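Quick one, probably user error.
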């Protein structure tokens, strides 16, 4: 007679899945804010630490698959169950009409703020992804070639002249953009006929002249692709197009452009503080959930570690928000 094996309740399993995806969110938040802080704290480095890290991530093979599988899906799972738990939560650290318990303990306040920050993060996370992954995401032109360029539009300011020179990027204003539209397609047909004739030849011998013509045609085609991409972008009179040789530099200037606005500084200050509290308060509670800390002294020590990490990562995040433009890359 076989022994009966009790199955784990589904609620228990999904709580653990929610906890694990939350731990993954903590690790990502640490990496993300360490990377972003390098745009502000490494003074005199012109954000090169940030550029190197962003380029390293951007050059990963199958990046879209990685983003979806290791970021999008875990965060979506955590958010979906987090909303469900937030809707059924019963915070008891705020005064009411007396019909519900009112407890002034720190852990009750933390429980309440964990739910409040979850709603704030849902809104701000969607905003952040839409802004930096779609609206302000640099456009790639001729990617995979030695003439790869990355384009992003930013608002012009006097400090951008010297910052662009130090980073080695080109600025295209609306007037220059209009000039490009006028001069596109000149001499293109004549060159295309010559290239077509060479490619139709059945010769297997190396020809220096043919090589020069085909390489020139390829360079011309890449230049055409760049001009086409530039002329297609819509610019306001106060905007310019950044033409960057690397994705990281284009991203750095997009971040700089965002954080010279006091509105965005305020929004991202709230975002960083909510994310850090939610992540590291969740880290501490997950230690209890998984039984990593059982004794009272161990729980106290773990809470101090979580608070220390929260303050450190929050400092790095706020440094990126307040320092990228105002401290490091204003001029």
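Nope, works fine. Designed sequence:
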């Amino acid at each position: 007679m076989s022994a009966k094996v009790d199955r784990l309740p589904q609620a228990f399993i999904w709580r653990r899945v929610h906890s694990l995806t939350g731990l993954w969110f903590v690790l990502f938040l640490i990496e993300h804010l360490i990377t972003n802080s390098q745009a502000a704290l490494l003074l005199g480095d012109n954000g090169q630490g940030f550029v190197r890290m962003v380029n390293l991530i951007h050059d990963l093979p199958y990046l879209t698959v990685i983003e979806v599988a290791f970021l999008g899906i875990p965060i979506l799972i955590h958010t979906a169950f987090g909303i469900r738990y937030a809707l059924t939560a019963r915070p008891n650290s705020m005064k009411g009409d007396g019909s519900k318990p009112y407890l002034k303990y720190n852990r009750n306040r933390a429980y309440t703020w964990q739910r409040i920050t979850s709603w704030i993060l849902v809104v701000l996370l969607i905003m952040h992804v839409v802004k930096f992954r779609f609206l302000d995401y640099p456009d790639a032109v001729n990617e995979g070639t030695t003439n790869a360029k990355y384009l992003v539009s930013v608002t012009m300011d006097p400090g951008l002249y010297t910052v662009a020179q130090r980073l080695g990027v080109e600025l295209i204003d609306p007037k220059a953009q209009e000039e490009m539209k006028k001069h596109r397609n000149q001499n293109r047909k004549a060159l295309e006929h010559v290239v077509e004739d060479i490619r139709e030849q059945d010769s297997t011998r190396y020809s220096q002249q043919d090589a020069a013509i085909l390489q020139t045609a390829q360079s011309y085609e890449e230049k055409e692709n760049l001009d086409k991409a530039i002329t297609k972008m819509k610019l306001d009179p106060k905007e310019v197009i950044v033409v960057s040789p690397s994705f990281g530099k284009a991203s750095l200037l997009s971040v700089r452009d965002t954080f010279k606005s006091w509105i965005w500084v305020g929004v991202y200050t709230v975002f960083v503080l909510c994310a850090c509290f939610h992540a590291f308060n969740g880290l501490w509670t997950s230690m209890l959930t998984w039984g990593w800390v059982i004794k009272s002294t161990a729980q106290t020590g773990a809470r101090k570690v979580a608070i220390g990490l929260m303050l450190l990562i929050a400092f790095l995040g706020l440094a990126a928000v307040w320092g990228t433009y105002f401290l490091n890359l204003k001029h």
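The chain has a mean pLDDT of 90.
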